Every structure is written in structure tokens, then in C-alpha cells.
Amino acid sequence: MATSKKIYFYPVWLRIWHGLNALGIVILIVTGISLQNIESSFIGFNSAINLHNISGVVVTLGYLIFFVGNIITNNSKYYIVKPKGFIKRPLKQIYYYMWGMFHNMKAPYPLSEKRKFNPLQKYFYIIVMYLVVPMVIITGFALLFPEIIIENVYNLSGVFVTAIFHSALGFFISIFLIIHLYVATIGKSPIDNFKSIFNGWH
Amino acid sequence: MKYRLFTLISIILFCTLWHHSKAQYYNDPENHECLKCHSGQAYTFHNELMDLEEKKLMNPYFILDTVALALGVHNLFDCTDCHSYEYVTYPHASNLKLESLITCLDCHGGDESFASYQFEKIEEESQKSIHYQVYGDNFTCSKCHSQHTYAATARTSSDVLEIVDYSNKMCLSCHNNMNKYQLVSGHENPQLIQVHDWLPNQELHFKHVRCIECHTEIVDGLMVSHNIQEKAKAVKNCVECHTTNSRLKSSLYKYQNLQKRSETGIFNAVLSNESYVIGTHQSPFLKLLSIIIFLATLVGVATHTIFRILKK
Ligand code: HEM
Fold first, then answer.
1. What confidence tens digit (pLDDT) does each residue in B203-218 have?
2. What is the mean pLDDT of residues B251-270?
3. What residues of chain B lie within 8 A of the CB of A49, using their CB?
4. CATH number of this structure's domain A12-199
């Protein structure tokens, strides 16, 4: 991170996706919590439902941008995991966050043209973008068209199981978001990374 | 031991025989005095004047559903227990049209063995309903409950969807049928789909909730509320149902027969096994878990921030 030379990390399509996604997900989290606790919510049930559905569609379209973008551009290279040091590399990064950075150690995986994410960050992004978000989208659409859901899983309503799963994934994304926002403040200055995701240059 | 075995066998034997004797009247419609005509689209009779067999179409409203008849609560009766015995002759005598039929209350009123159904209370509630207010005694119990086929579904079924379907058909058989509606009313029936177009996922709702959920005042202690209120008092507020203390819990989902099947450990908030109503199923366990994880995350972030400031 010490180089003063700037790298163009975030192409326009990625920033468009990220903007849509961030806005959509934040609305989904707020309305999603409202739907579960509607008595203590400031949004009416009907508008919460509508907002949640619309944002869900926006995030889905956004996800298509992300998915296709990562196939046709070389942004995908940042998401490739090497088997070597599969466990050791992220542990090293955790050690740095927990201890090293307070003891003037150097970041073990400084960012460069070849490396946009540190290993820990990479793992989290992969889990969120290729597992959790797709699942939340699928379960969300299933709940929008409940007739496609299998009726009963053992003794429970299929819709019920889907809904619990959907909420759990949504909750995971909320926690991810908090950590994501916090970790993004660890940079040259706390707002440096936020500037990057706006103007593209790191 | 032998004695017990003997008793057991006689009980089983008795039950099967008794069960058999039940509904015996309607087992063989083809040869039943009345059902040979009243269960098919066409009937034949011997025209004595012309001395020939004649075949004619049956009035569709006089065709009885023999399957439902055998499953109904009154399958112990034969037709002529309720209708005049003179009906055995055809053409039926014209004065029979004037015959007054016994009502539910005539038989069930004050009868201890049916106390759990609270017939008197139901009658009282029905008389407050909008139907009774507009059409008076003409709107008998039989307008909704066929004495031939009624089965107490909400009480016996363990399937919410079945209960809803059965109950809603009782309303729709009239509200969606111009002819039957005109039987009581002078005006046209409002189109229910348009009337309820403010309700999203209408089809889903009508499959999962009963009309009476929104259109009656819930009376505690009564299994099925019978006071159908004017439309201005109908439930329009989504939160009445989509919330932790949903009104469905004191109406549709209160039946014991449904609850028995859904005692499922940590998800004890699950009230029914067929429906999931957003907003109602809060598992206290999952809620607590998520609050703990959430707070732990915040504490983690805060501690890290403090160290960053201190070690700068
Ligand atoms: C208010 C909301 C958000 C803000 C302010 C924000 C901020 C940022 C920042 C500053 C970066 C660049 C630094 C880095 O690469 O770590 C970034 C990248 C990223 N964010 Fe977010 N984020 C938000 C919401 C989200 C959400 C909801 C998700 C996913 C569900 C997400 C997924 C990602 C991914 C995958 C990247 C890396 C993209 C790439 O370069 O390929 N972000 N975000």
C-alpha cells in the first residue's frame, strides 16, 4: 500500500454493479427486518413488501452484471484461489489484523496489479458473491412465487423452511456488510478505500 | 385373558358392523328410492297416463352429491327422516312444496350431546350478521350449510388448506354463482376478484385464509365465528395477520387438530404445518442468536478500532 503510483482497480461496470448492489442490499436489510417486526417498524407492511421485492430485482440484475462482468473481463483473476497455502495464507492475514498491524509489521499481502484482495478478503468475497448472494436470490424468488416450492419438508412447510433459510442468509449478508465496511476503513486513510470504489483508482 | 380377547373381538365386530350400518342408505344410489333420480343428470319414471317409460333431465340444483352425502354429518338419516314420506311417489305432490323443513336448531338446540358446538351461540351470532340483517329469516343456516353434505371440517381436518377450501366454497358457492346469489338478493353479485384487488397474491391468500378470517368478528370460545360484518368493518390491514400476534392464531390456527401435528422443537413458533405467514413465525431462539452474533460483531469492530487509535 506504500506505493504512490495509483492502480485502476475498479472499472466502470464494477462500480455500477457495486453501487446498485450496495443500495439494494441496504434497502433489503432494512425492509427485511421490518417485515419480521412490523409492529415496531416505520414502514407499512405493504410498502415494505413492495420495496423489498423491487430491491430484490435490482440486486438480481446487478448480480448478472457482476457475474457476466467477471466472465468477460479479467477481473475474475483476483478471485482465483491457489491451493498452495489454502489455510495458511488467510491465517497469516488474520494474524496481521489481530496483532501485526498494531506492532508495526508490514502487511503480508500488499496490494498490487496482480493482487487486489488479501487472501482473507478474497475468501469472504467468494463466499458472499458465489454462494450466499445467489442462494438468497434463489430463495427470494421462490418466496415470491411460492407455488414452485415443494410443499412439505418432513413435517414442516416448505415455504417455512425456505423463509428461515432466506432470513439466515440475509442475516449473514448483514454481518458481512458490517465487517466489509469496517475493513474498508483500514487503508492509507479511513476513507481512502471508499474513494476508490467511487472513482476506480486505488 | 380369554375373556379380554373375547371382549376385544366383540368390540371390533360391533364397530365394523356399526360403521357399516352408518351411511347404509346412501351406499347404493342406483337402487335408492330417491337417489335413483336425485343423483344423476337424468331420471326415468313411469308415466302412468301414457303408460310408458319417460326419461327427463334433472334440475341441476336437485342433484345430490352421493359421495359428500355419505361423508356428511347426517349420513345416519335417510331422506324421508327429514323430508315427507310422500316424496316416494312421483310426480311429487304439489302440496309438498309447502312443507316446512326442520332447521338445525330444531334438532340441535338444547341438546347436551352437541354442547361443544354451541348451536345457540352460533344462532345468536348469525343473527347479528349482515346477511341476516338484510334478508332476515330467509337467510337460514342451510344457505351456507347443506344439511345433506355438511361435514365439520375445521374440527376434524388436520390440513389447513382443506379447511380453508371447504369453508371458502361455502361462501363462493353463492358469491360466485349469480343464480344462487339471486335466490336471496335482488341485485347482481359483486365481482370478488375486483372487490379484493387491493390484496396482493390474491389467489394465494384465498387458498390460505378463510373469507371469515377477514369478514367476521372473532368470538373467543366459538370455533367458527358466525357474525359476518358489513364490508366497511372487514380486515384490510395486512398487519392484523402478518405479525407475531396474528389474528389467525385466534381463528384459523387455533384448532387442536392442527396444533398436534406441529410441535417441532426449537421452531415451536410454527403453528401450522402447511402455511408460512411472513411476520408471524418468530423463533425466540433464532432471534436471540442473531442478536448475540450482531452484538459480538459490533464489539469486535469497536475493540479493533480502539486498538487502532491507541497504537497509532
Ligand atoms: C454501503 C454499502 C457498501 C460500501 C460503502 C462498500 C464499500 C466497498 C469498498 C470501499 C470496496 C473496495 C475495497 C475492497 O475491495 O475491499 C468494496 C469492494 C467490494 N464490495 Fe463493497 N461496499 C458496500 C456494500 C457491499 C455489499 C452489500 C456487497 C456484497 C453483498 C459488497 C461486495 C463487495 C465486493 C465483492 C467488492 C470487491 C469488488 C471487486 O473489486 O471485484 N459490497 N466495497
1. 888 988 899 989 998 8
2. 48
3. 200, 238
4. 1.20.950.20
